[in-house]
Design a protein that fits this description.
This is Probable thymidylate kinase. It comes from Candidatus Nitrosocosmicus arcticus. GO terms for molecular function: ATP binding; dTMP kinase activity. It is an enzyme of class 2 (transferase). This protein is an alpha/beta fold. It is built from nine helices and five strands. It has one domain: Rossmann fold. The protein has a five-stranded parallel sheet, sandwiched between helices. Helix 1 packs across helix 9, helix 2 runs antiparallel to helix 3 and helix 5 packs across helix 8.
């Protein structure tokens, strides 16, 4: 069986950049043995619905939003299992951890949120790229990104960041300060996964 490495953090924390760097590095080292998945996956029907509520085009209550986010991962369960069974290492750019921390910030119950992904493949390593909401916001503005529903409130993002850091203590998640340079962060990720 392969392994699952999860990269998590606020938006603009560097997850996509680091996931791509890690995929390229490991794929060079172990050709054909690495897969990369990103969530939400907007290419599916459920993903399209998630994009719609994030863009403010449709309104749902918090429970529905988080059920849709979970369902989006369930859509990819068989793909993930296939990769694992063939011995591949999987890099996940976000996973169920996002649903927990954002759901808690939305006032939802931890146990209820936890049940949504019960039965999905478990990760081997979780790495949180920790960035302040202020830096997340400034990176968005600098790159002309349109802020989605979860990114607009700095107070909300402060809660999300707090949840990441608190759950990291009890769930054995690795936390990296992601306001450092991309190279420094990447070397730290390699060290965590034992590839240095």
């Amino acid at each position: 069986m392969g392994k699952i490495i999860v990269l998590e953090g606020l938006d603009k924390s560097g997850k996509t950049t680091q996931a791509r760097l890690l995929f390229d590095y490991l794929n060079d080292k172990y050709p054909g043995q690495i897969d990369l998945f990103s969530f939400p996956d907007y290419s599916t029907k459920i993903g399209e619905e998630i994009r719609s509520f994030l863009d403010g085009k449709v309104q749902y209550n918090p429970q529905t939003k988080h059920m849709l986010l979970s369902a989006n991962r369930w859509e990819k369960k068989e793909n993930i299992l296939e990769s694992l069974k063939s011995g591949k290492t999987i890099i996940l750019n976000r996973y169920y951890q996002s649903n927990l921390v954002y759901g808690l910030a939305n006032g939802l119950d931890f146990e209820w949120l936890s049940t949504l992904d019960r039965g999905m493949p478990k990760e081997d390593i979780t790495i949180i790229l920790d960035v302040s909401p202020r830096v997340s916001y400034l990176r968005s503005i600098a790159n002309n990104f349109i802020l989605d529903e979860f990114e607009k409130s700095r107070e909300f993002l402060e809660k999300v960041r707090f949840n990441y850091l608190e759950l990291a203590k009890v769930c054995n998640w690795n936390v990296l300060h992601s306001e450092n340079s991309s190279d420094i962060i990447f070397k730290s990720i390699l060290d965590i996964i034992g590839e240095q």
